[in-house]
Amino acid sequence: MQTEVRQLSSTVFSVGHLDPRIRIIAVAAFAVVVVSLNSFWALGLAVCLSALTLPFSRLPVATTLKRMAGMDGFILLILVMLPFTMPGQTWFTLFGFAASWEGLWRALQIAMKANAIVLMLLTMIGSMETVTLGQALHRLKVPETLVQLLLFTVRYVDVLRDEYLRSRVAMKARGFRPANSIHSYKSFGYLVGMMLIKAMERSERVLNAMKCRGFAGRWPHLDVMLFKVHDWIFTGFAIGFLLVLIWVNLQ
Amino acid sequence: MTQPLIKLEDISFSYPGRAATLERLNLELHPNERLCISGPNGIGKSTLLHIIVGLLKPDAGRVYAFGSQRVSERDFHEVRRLAGLVFQDPDDQLFCPTVAEDIAFGPLNLGKSKTETLTIVDQILDRFELTHLRERITHKLSGGEKRLVTLAAVMAMEPRVLLLDEPSNGLDEATTERLVEILTSLPQSMILISHDAHFRSKIATRSQSLIDGRLEDFDPKCKHAKP
Question: Does domain B6-225 have CATH number 3.40.50.300?
Fold first, then answer.
């Protein structure tokens, strides 16, 4: 898929052209800077910056924004509660509870920070194949074990899901209908237990297959990642933008 | 007679808490031989292949492979390179994210350089007519594609012997036909486990059946399976 994207956009610059490592570093740096901002001008600029990268990521706009809204759903409760829990100048009173202006500003700040970072994460890393992400993390000296965990999860999550669905169908075929009964809970318990056992046995077979092909504890990597001229240009721009954000925040 | 490539002598094996699976079993595989082994489910056919490559240790008996006796884990490192085991479930074997990486896994472990490995990957894919699958994600392949890729991945290590555990399982007729074509065109000797009498009859140069923990020469009962 990555190659298709690359071919489609070979004439115009896109995030896919960049070295995956610089994409990860850039997002991490962006997140650290944005979290520490507190001026509304700087935060507004950060949100605009994230929105500007969206067209360069070649991701479908509607889906990406929907995903971002999904994250907003998680923090919505905190945002609504904040004006009521933060002390300060009264904005309005609801059923005898006072909402403060300070709380409102803080809630807005959190919403802007979260959206800016999540959108940047989606455009810069969400557009990357998980495999590429794993290899880039490996090259950034993330512990091998963690990278292998990520890659094995990507590889086997579908196999496990299929196993689960097959078991569910088999249960249904024999007339099982989930209900609030001991029998239901017991059956689900068996299902989960059986999946754990199967997963463990599979892991042993996978290790055997790896041994048969000469695996001795170290994972060989095939691809080559090259830091090219446009990666340096991008790095320059990224540092520039982050400095501008910090400068605006200090004004 | 030439020296056998693989020879098992008086191999006994039992899983803990169960009756003996293999009892004083003997096996020989000679160059240019395609030995097919049949037998009921759970009788120990896969166990046999795992003992040959040292994934399981026999309780008694001796394993000879490629001219010497193999005892320690270190001995078996070489055996695993020279005798390529194709697992029963392709999902167990295809653990790398993409097809190219999976085929490259073996050669890279053997210490080949990246350029050498990439050449091997392309040659193998070309030989098996699988080049269109090169960048595909392994778990999204069809059952037949998975099977052919596992075979290609093992062949990339240039083994002298192939050990195949029910390779025709779950394949449609066309893919089975293609697998037969590929296997019979390979110069490697092989030990092949299969329940499919027709499949065996197309490939085998010798057939044996695993009964009561031992291998016996086998004459197929089904008339269609006779060569």
Answer: yes
